[in-house]
Automatic annotation (TrEMBL):
It comes from Puia dinghuensis. Signal peptide: none annotated. Gene3D superfamilies: Cyclic phosphodiesterase (3.90.1140.10). This is 2'-5' RNA ligase family protein. PANTHER family: PHOSPHOESTERASE SAOUHSC_00951-RELATED, PHOSPHOESTERASE YJCG-RELATED. It holds the Pfam family 2_5_RNA_ligase2.
Amino acid sequence: METGLARTSFSAVAPPGLGIPSRRAEYLLVIYPYGDLQDKLLEAQQQFSTEYGLQVTVRNRPHITVAAFQAGEPMEDTLIRWIQRICKHFNSFDLTLNNFSGFPPHTIYLRVQDPQPFRDLMRQLRAIDDYIRSSGCPPVNLISRPYLSIAGGLTEQVYNKAMPDYSRKTFHDTFHVDQLVLLKREHAFDACKTVNIFRLQPDKIN
């Protein structure tokens, strides 16, 4: 099962003006469903593993990725400040998960019904992409097609067996997004750790 981060190699990189290379870490900016919905999603992931005989490995809580990137440790405080500034001016919103789809031949996921809030976030986060590129790191992966993974890293055989079953299943649930969470890990097989939580602005009342 995937943990939400692609397996990548880590190389030393120095931000401009620093003579000592710093090791890159992987970061994810995510949205966590919570409460009964989180339990429902964990149950769906476990059910998939049981039905198709998959070995469950260490993974993160069910989440929707907003952005993924690599950065050196000296950059972390600056990135946190910039993301905080963006979130202070971004309103919370409702998010609906609606039925299953897939990325052949490896991932089955729940669709996000309305991606518009993510597109708005992407526009705001481009400034962070500029900073990360200028520091010699790969471009930020800003997610334009958000989804919540139920099962990833599948073999083609398992995917082809499961996808027809899941295309007939129904799932519909809505939750309110009022924060983003920044996760980090140092190596490809590490579990992610929480770096910071960014609160969004409350909905405006007309």
